[in-house]
Structure formats: C-alpha cells, structure tokens
C-alpha cells in the first residue's frame, strides 16, 4: 500500500523559497498540505557546519528532500532525518542545474535507474518513513514513455511506491534551471498514462498548476498534485486546499487572520536576533491579485530589510494597502 501521508496537495521543494519560515507561514493556511523542504545535499548534512535539518514542529507533515547519489550517504541522512521527526524522505531526481550535475545528482540520475534503486534500497533499510522520488518525464533525447517506465519500474522494484513527476523533461545542456521549468512542454497525459499502467503506485503530478480547479482535474486521474511557484507567489491558494480538496474545515478565513497568527512567530524570530526580511520576503505574495497588493508589496520590499525593522513594518504595509483601496 502507498504511504498513509495525505498527498492530495503538496508544496514543491524550492531552493531559497520553501525554507522553514515559508513553511511555518504556509501551515497557517492549510493543515492538510504536505510540505517539502528545499533540497538539502547529503554533503551539507554530513559535512556542513549548520544544522540543515532544523524546522519548526508546526510544519508537520513535512518531507525532507535530499540531493545526492551515494547510497550510503543518503541512507545516513535518511536515518538522521527520521530521528529528527521528518515524515518522509524524498530524493531529487529532477533538478537540472550544472552544479547538481557535477555532483552527479538531480535530473541526470534519471539515466541511472539502477543507482537510484540502490539509493532507495539503502535508505529503506534504515528508515520506516516513506522514501519517495521526485523526477521528470525524461531528460534530453531520452524522452520516450519507455524510458520513463524503465526508470519507474527499476526504482519501484527497490521499494519506492511514491513518485512525484514534474510533467516535462529536462534539457541538461544549454538551458538554465529556470528555463527548464518553462521551455520543455508539459505533458500531463504521460503522467496519467503512468498511473493507468502502474495503479499500485502513488503518482503525484507537478508542473504549471495554478488553481484549485486545475488541481481537481488532475486529482480525478492521480493520487496527488504538487504545486511550486503558485504556492509561493500566490500563497493564499493554500487556504482553499483543506476545504476544497480534502473535505476538511477551513484553517483560516482571511489573509488578516494569517498575518495575525504569523506576528508572534515573527516577534520571536526578531527577539532571537533574526531579521524581519527573513520572514517578510515570503509573505509578499499574500495579497496577490487583490487591490492594494502593490502597495503591500512595495512597503515590505522597501522597508523590511532595513536594520532594526520590526513588526511595525508589517502593520504599516497593511495601512499602506488600505489607503490605496479606501
Ligand atoms: C525557486 C525554485 C527553486 C526550486 N528548487 C527545487 C529544489 O530544491 N528541488 C526540486 O526538486 N525542485 C526544485 N524546484 C522545482 C519545483 O519543485 C517544481 O518542480 C517546479 O517549479 C515546477 O512546478 P510549478 O510549475 O508548480 O512551479 C525549484 C523551483 C523554483 C521556482
């Protein structure tokens, strides 16, 4: 049986974006969404100086995304992650950046399904939380359906029952990671086909989803929808996830309520010596699409990075927004 975590809606791992402050903020709007960390490399965890596994308990359910391709290192990191309470460990087989390719991980691992299977196997021997894989539908010229199914069959034979598929291939040469999120065309049908052919696997789709309605369309065919940029740039979409996709009560009823719940967290962060901007940069999209959102955005961008900036910057951003709408 696929894992018991609710995968209906998940927020994608996004480097520099889905840090623990963003995730705390996201959790204020949805209890049900499964949240992913930014990719953390095994090298950072095993040899880095910082605590790369730190998070707030409120963030659960929370998956750690790992970047790496050494089965032993991945297994050690998975074990550390489980001990710290992560609900899932995910391997990045989708990132096309040069840096990641040099480390022989990310999307280039699609060409090495046996190695990915070894990684999954080594990790599963160490942990009982789900070990999952986020990948693409292909890489470079290797973009046939057979290439994808070979990969999925080999990796699932090692015990991975959950795949998150970014429904476009990656070009490993010549395109930046940003271009690789826009230029290769999306092929949702291919992911639907995968689910039809491997109904025993949990298959989530990722790529280009910007509304709850679109999520519903995918969920009619698949186990889950993973949303990246929209969940960051228009985060209030999360407030509809529990009610509209999961049949659960709403967690919040307004954006102001979200801010009200975030303020104590910001206050504690400031009291601990943190900067306002570390958190405020993640809430800039909260009023996306509403009148006054420009004033909100501008006030935060111009003031939150200043030394000594405090909660009053948020309060004044609300006032600036109200002035433009009244
Ligand atoms: C700023 C940024 C950072 C990203 N970092 C990661 C990452 O660390 N790991 C990963 O698997 N994908 C990463 N991605 C890709 C997203 O997880 C996702 O697959 C992609 O954005 C497509 O989904 P979307 O169209 O809903 O944004 C990143 C995307 C963005 C925009």
Automatic annotation (TrEMBL):
Key words of the record: Flavoprotein, FMN, NADP, Nucleotide-binding, Oxidoreductase, RNA-binding, tRNA processing, tRNA-binding
Feature type site, description Interacts with tRNA: 92, 178, 181, 294, 297
EC number(s) stated in the UniProt entry for this protein: 1.3.1.91
Catalytic center residues: 95
First-tier enzyme category under EC: oxidoreductase
Cited PROSITE patterns: UPF0034
Recorded catalytic activity of this chain's protein: 5,6-dihydrouridine(20) in tRNA + NADP(+) = uridine(20) in tRNA + NADPH + H(+); 5,6-dihydrouridine(20a) in tRNA + NAD(+) = uridine(20a) in tRNA + NADH + H(+); 5,6-dihydrouridine(20a) in tRNA + NADP(+) = uridine(20a) in tRNA + NADPH + H(+); 5,6-dihydrouridine(20) in tRNA + NAD(+) = uridine(20) in tRNA + NADH + H(+)
Pfam families listed in its UniProt record: Dus
Residues that bind FMN: 13-15, 65, 134, 166, 206-208, 228-229
Gene3D superfamilies per UniProt: 1.20.120.1460, Aldolase class I
Keyword Translocase applies: no
Similarity-based family: Belongs to the Dus family. DusA subfamily. Belongs to the dus family.
Protein's UniProt name: tRNA-dihydrouridine(20/20a) synthase
Organism: Shewanella amazonensis (strain ATCC BAA-1098 / SB2B)
Source species taxonomy: Bacteria, Pseudomonadati, Pseudomonadota, Gammaproteobacteria, Alteromonadales
